[in-house]
Amino acid sequence: MNTVANWTNSIVVLPSINMPKTNAIKDLFYCPNEGCVRTFSRNSSLDQHVMLGFCDFRQEKQPLSDKAKSMYAEKVKESASFAGSITLASDNTQSESSSSELEQGWALKFRKSQVQFSVHQKEYLIQKFDKGNQTGRKEDPVVVADEMRNEKTVTGKYRFSRNEYLTAQQITSFFSREVQKRKKMDSNDFTAAVEEDNKSNLKKVILQKIS
């Protein structure tokens, strides 16, 4: 009960009003992604939710009749689109068959023309290959291809023209063939040396027997 004094100095007694205690408002923070129904009591929780992307999308319930109408409209639309695509494909097939004919040998395997290196190109690549063997650090074909475009002569002119440029793959193939070629040469030299040594030993044996 509350007592209030008015201007006439009379006392008026007012009944006390019990104000219901309201709970603290919760879930003040809503997910900014459209359709997500998640809410949070702290901004930090919202930030974490947005960062992780764990949204909760719940479709709004619609009357059964509206849902049936939507499904029917989608089916009609899909049927019309499917029929149109079949007609278009049929027209394209007829047009292609009537306007184009397969050339003879179309299924034969295409052979790439083998690139023949010029003497100029071979000299440059062999220089790079020998440099790698001497230093113990093999030349990178990608780097060699780039250097080939910027290589200049003593007079300051570019050493190679545009049509003489080689790709890294072509340089790799050349280096690989050069390795195999030199291995074969070393093997032949070793075989020749062994044969020469055998001949020399045989000659010594014959001379010893004669003497």
UniProtKB/TrEMBL annotation:
Keywords: Metal-binding, Zinc, Zinc-finger. PROSITE patterns: ZINC_FINGER_C2H2_2. One of its GO terms (molecular function) is zinc ion binding. Residues 29-63 form the C2H2-type domain. The keyword Zinc-finger applies. It comes from the Eukaryota. Transmembrane segments: none annotated. This is C2H2-type domain-containing protein. The lineage of its organism: Eukaryota, Metazoa, Spiralia, Lophotrochozoa, Mollusca.
